[in-house]
Amino acid sequence: MVMLIWMFMGELTLITAAGLGLGFFWQKLPAQMPWFYSLPWGEDQLIPKLWHGIGLAILALICVLNYLVARKLDKSDRVVALVVESAGLVLVCLYLASFFRVISIML
Q1: Which of 39, 42, 60, 83 is most buried, with most CB under 10 Å away?
Q2: How would DSSP label each residue in 18-68?
Q3: How many whole angstroms separate alpha carbon 67 and alpha carbon 88?
């Protein structure tokens, strides 16, 4: 149970740091930023910068739901609960790697 709490707090710390970074650089960012790199070159790849904040909020919601599922699973099978929470941590790291890459390109 303690490991789940530490992983969950780590996820929320990373998301909070990303949100603070986005808030700090908000005025310096352009109105639209790239995100959909798989689409053809041009305006199809751009999204409004507000969606980056919404993405962080959705990511936080997914982390909370993932933690609740892992906590419920922890009562019956500790290994499965750790795998579920670890998958959430991997999801956060992958999303934030893309997030920070886009922010660094725009600054």
Answers
A1: 60
A2: HHHHHHHTGGGS-SEEE--TTSPSSGGGEEETHHHHHHHHHHHHHHHHHHH
A3: 8
**What span, in angstroms and rounded, lies between the C-alpha atoms of 3 and 82?**
8
Tell me how far apart the alpha carbons of residues 106 and 82 are, in angstroms, rounded to a whole number. Answer: 36
- For residue range 85-95, list pLDDT tens digits in order: 899 999 999 99
Q: State both tokens at 104.
A: 């660094």
User: pTM of the full predicted structure?
Assistant: 0.84
Which residue type does 69 have? Answer: V
Give the C-alpha separation, 21 to 23, whole Å. Answer: 5
Amino acid in the structure at residue 11: E
